[in-house]
Amino acid sequence: MSEEVSARSLGRSTAVMAAGTAVSRVLGFVRGTLLVAAVGLTSARAGDAFTVANTLPNIFYMLIAGGVINAVLVPQVVRAYRSANGQEYVDRLLTVSFVILGGATVVLWAASPLIVRIFLDGEQAALATSFALWCVPQVFFYGVYTLLGQVLNARGSFGPYMWAPVVNNVIAIAGLVVFIAAFGTWEKPAHGAVEDLSVWTGGRVSLLAGVATLGVIAQAVVLIWPLRRLGFHYRPRRGWRGAGLGSAGRVAGWTFAALAVGQVGAFVVMKIAALAPNVDRTQLGVPGNIAYTNAFTIFMLPHSLVTVSLITALFTRLSDHAAARDVRAVRADFSHGLRTIGVFTLFTAPAIAVIAVPLLRALYPSTAQSDAASMAPIIVAFMCGLAAVGAWSLVQRVFYAYEDAKGLFRIQVAMAGVVVAVSVLGWLVAEPRHWVAWAAAGMSLSYVLGAVWGGAQVWRRLGGGLSRIIRLHVRAGLAAAIATGLGWLISRVFGNLAGSSWFVAVFACALVGVVMVVAYGLALRWLGVTELDDFLRPLLGRLAPLTRRLAPITSRLGPLGALLAPPAEPSPRSMGSPGTGTPGPAAAPSAVAPAVVPPGVGYGRFGRPERGGDRLDAVIGRGTLLAGRYRLHQPVAADLPDAQTWTARDQILDRPVRALILTGGGAGPAQDAARRAALVSDPRLLRVLDVGDHEGVAYVVTEPVVGQDLGRLTANGPLPADQARAIVGEAAAALEVARRRGVHHLALRPEAVHVTPDGAVLVTGLAVDGELFGNAHGDAKSTSRADTVGLVALLYLALTGRWPAASDAAGTPGTTEAGTTPVAPSVAGAPVPPAELSPAVPPDLDTLCAVTLGPHDDGPHSPGELVRELEPWPAIDAAAIYDSLDAAARAAIVPSGPWDEGGPGGEPGAAAPGGAGDARDAGRPGGAAGPGGPGAALGSAPAAARVQRQSVRQSVRPAAPAGQLPPTGAVPGAVPPAAGGLVTGVPASVRGPVGSGALPPAVPPVVPPSGPRPVGAGTPRGYDAGFDALLDEPVPLARRRFNATPIVLGLVGLLVVLGLVWAWNALMAPAPPLGGEEGLGLTEQTPGPDESASEEPSATPTTPPAEEGAAPGAAPVIASAQMLDPPPGGDNNEHPEAVPLAIDGDPSTFWFTRTYASSTYGMKEGIGYAVTLAQPATVSTVRLQVNGTGGMVEVRATDPATPTTGEVLAHGALSPDTVLTLDPPTETQTIVLWFTELPTTPDARIRLELLELQVS
């Protein structure tokens, strides 16, 4: 990875988690305020009893499950998903964890009376035991929550784990409100009196403690839904011996030992805190366990908001890099984490210490002046260790990433010793009212020790980079000191804030806080601390439109305006590793470097240039999780200008992909071109899977490129004429399909046409390459001619082994000569006829090349006309073609990217030892794919998957919707371009219906590819029918396999029965029905092309029989349909080409929407589907067959131009077979279905797939 890690990617993940943590913490403070009102704060015996009982599950959870899970699960899951049996391993790991958690919870529940006696005695211990019997089961559900959350984190989904505690807090708040309404608030006993515990009956205990446990249960259960959406299917597995869990067990053992030692200190603190209020029960304002817990909650608030969120996002990357033994990447991640944490905590700690007293008055308005005065020292003591606890947490994650829990053991023994020593010292020398403050100071001092000692060990392991961290902390500390001094002076103006009103306390906190934030930000700017920009960029990026409007004002504010200005974006750099001398792909001889961009100019969203720093290098690098889904592996040399090509892996579907990072000013048009190309369905065209932006950098994701390009296939001489005819004919047929959809290539060259090992042709870069080369200008006629001339030039190369020189007279601008492909001689501006270079060229092909590439505008003018000129052609004999390659070219078939991520022997990264240079060296002897490399022999390349082939009759036709295309699933070839030649026509502008703001098209369903056609088997393609006849034969559409999910449906039903609150967008959505016979019938396979049409379910009547009570009149008959996606949120492009498939009477075809990240779309109100009847008729029922569950639909009889107006006649949740009854039956000619929420398909995609719509 680059020297500076993907800070923007971390910023986005951290922002999502910080938002969830912030909401949870705010609700936690509300919960704490209500708890203090219910049971008291200081000198509260019942409150201390409940705190001890409710803290025990947390202590034992951290001892038994929490730390072990955090230490073991993420690294083990990351490593597991690198292997073929990763899911099985994870299932076994979870099963073992669930069993251990369950057994430990039962034992602890039985032993809870004895454990409580360690801390309390008498009637207070009896009350605490009653609370503990309700609270101890939380251990199991805390463990389940952490287990499921860490699996989500390992899969790159960080938000749900941080948002789930919101559900816990909501339930707890509701329970406390009911408790206070039923039993009233806590009243401080009179001076000299003792709180009466006899009022705590079974009802009080069960309500207070039972609701607390119910919230923890809900917190764990809500994570099941996001796991199912990611495609995770847990299956309990036994047979743990020999399953590879030994490493996990060893790490867990040392982690348990270290945490056990650490919890000794926690037990001592809890014991001393329990003793303090009981030394003299008549003395008020003595902090105990409940005061310590609330102070610790305030201490953990900033730590949770930023530090935990950042570390959680960083831990998966640390584990991934550690598994790959990429020490440099781990060091960069660790350095970035420490610096970011330091910028935040070095200011937050003194800021909270300054406003500690008014903050307590603001958070707990029911407290007395003595309570605030006695708790403030505890908060100040905790804040002394805030920066250290953040650093210590990151140090722990590095140890865990390397599975080195043993190294932490010695450190945690010393840390526990410090906590015990300082706490006992305070117990011996201080008054009881200060015992808890001493314990807090001991905790802070232990964190400092752990951060310093552990950090030193980490740097001995990683090496280098310490000076940058020290400089950052010195400068940030100086800035924090300036802000702290200013804030302290302002706080003195308010006088004694311990006795102030709630309003004055809130005002003091706000004023002092704002002044300190501004002073700290200005000081950091003045001291040149750039890490502040990384920290603020996710927030200010969303406020960019506002800050641009305020630019004229902020520019006059001097330093304050500079603070309000958005942080500068980094500028693009090579993808290589800076400072190491390793060139990136841009440095490859065949790469096209964007030299026209001045230094310091970066690229903003949609490719618009903007000033900034090292943006691209900070966002994109090895290991970057592009858009939370595609893990980048290796940069690959390519000849595309303003673009960088990477091998990558789809983390969700677990398949290799090719990522194209667009770095130039043409990124927006290139993305539009990719969206247009995605609508063209043909197996010979490289399929576009995704288009989008990642942290302001545009990208296009495609299938991997398979096989050798035409330049390498002709490196040793021309191909046989019949093979040249077949290769170019297949390419022309594919481009004719694209032309009929209004899409052109416009950048045909040897690198754009590949022949796969099984004899298929693959054309890459449709529309996108033309935009990147700047050739997409002109009308449809000239662009079609340009592609045709490019195809004939490729035919010339295949026939002669030489690239035809450009002919101005032929309408083709100058062509860049290939670096390794010889250029054909020319006469009078036109290349010589191919027969003069190779006498074996047939006369018809010789004439075709001479005429088309000649000085006149003769020859075919479209790929379809070229197909007619070339047909018939035989099957491609790939084996014979590849046999002509030399050893180096053959070895480059399989790229050096780590597709088999376990590598030989199961070692991560073993398949790609060479780093960045592997991709560039592929194909050369001794290179990454040379002899001895993973691609040394064609027969030893299992990753070279087959590409499904089709005859011309199946593909030279109007293209099917993008969702019907079967994938190739093959491995890309990491082959440096052999020729930079480019044939272009008269430039033409090709614009499709999809604008730059459109969402990426849906990823087509995965269908197993068919086997390859044997060479020479059957009738050679093109011999059995003419070109025109090939367009008329229909091709049946393949249907995805239905993945039944009975487990998740059962869980959803359980959630509804229990009345738990759904998180996020499905909070109040009713559970989808379990489905019936017709719903399960969707799992049947689509009949093959040879099966009789009578076997299709077309015999089903278009409309069901009219129900009893329906109004008389003519039966409604659907005449037409249309999709509705109105602006401003929509763009009327929800696959309009597939609209008729929902009313064709065939459930195997369907209309579908794009795939969304949220069921409520995010940027628009909904999507509609309108039908127009042949004549006005009375409609009483509407029946929908949907491939999926969930989502909501509304039925209206209104104008499709205004789909959201008019009365809602029926509404309900979607299921595989949904029947909506209109009450009353309505006479109309138009029916509008408005989908306010989208369902989830069986393969966990959020989109609507409408199989059939019927009205009656």
What does the model show?
This protein is α+β, with helices and mostly antiparallel strands and 1256 residues long. It has five domains: 7-527, no CATH class; 531-564, no CATH class; 587-702, Phosphorylase Kinase, domain 1 (2-Layer Sandwich), CATH 3.30.200; 708-910 and 918-963, Transferase(Phosphotransferase), domain 1 (Orthogonal Bundle), CATH 1.10.510.10; 1099-1255, Galactose-binding domain-like (Jelly Rolls, Sandwich). It is 47% helix and 10% strand. The chain contains 38 helices and 20 strands. Strands 14, 15, 16, 17, 18, 19 and 20 form a seven-stranded antiparallel beta sheet that branches. A hairpin with a 2-residue loop joins strand 7 and strand 8. Residues 1-11, 242-247, 567-615, 807-819, 887-1045 and 1060-1112 have low confidence and may be disordered.
